Amino acid sequence: MQPVEIYTSPLCGFCHSAKRLLTQKGAAFDEVDVLSEPERKKEMIQRAGGARTVPQIFIGDVHVGGCDELYA
């Protein structure tokens, strides 16, 4: 299975929802908290094609998008 990576913020309700869905589906994921690791936000923006909001979710090298796209 491809690795799942999710860029989050602890203050973000959509981030909590996305992580809850991934957990319910049994998908392991690596979380990057852009508040505690602000240098990683630039990386997220570049990988996400300019998207600046969290969550941003990747499966392998594929950008899924945010919470709504994950649920779709």
Q: What would you note in describing this structure?
A:
By secondary structure, the chain is an alpha+beta fold. The protein has one domain (4-71): Glutaredoxin (3-Layer(aba) Sandwich), CATH 3.40.30. 36% of the residues lie in helices and 24% in strands. It has helices spanning 13-24, 39-47, 67-71, and strands at 4-8, 30-33, 56-59, 62-65. It has a 4-stranded mixed beta sheet, with helices on both faces. The two termini are 20 Å apart. The model has no long low-confidence stretch (mean pLDDT 97).
What is the beta-strand fraction? Answer: 15-25%
CATH topology-level name? Glutaredoxin
Named CATH architecture = 3-Layer(aba) Sandwich
Instruction: Please give the count of helices.
Output: 3
Q: How does the overall form come out from the CA principal axes?
A: globular
The run of helices and strands is EHEHEEH
- The strands making up the biggest β-sheet line up spatially as 2-1-3-4
Number of domains: 1
**What's the CATH H-level superfamily name?**
Glutaredoxin
CATH top level label:
Alpha Beta
Task: Classify the secondary structure makeup into a structural class.
Answer: alpha+beta
Keywords: Electron transport, Transport
Protein name: Glutaredoxin domain-containing protein
InterPro entries: Glutaredoxin, Glutaredoxin_subgr, Grx-like_ET, GRX_bact, Thioredoxin-like_sf
Organism: marine sediment metagenome
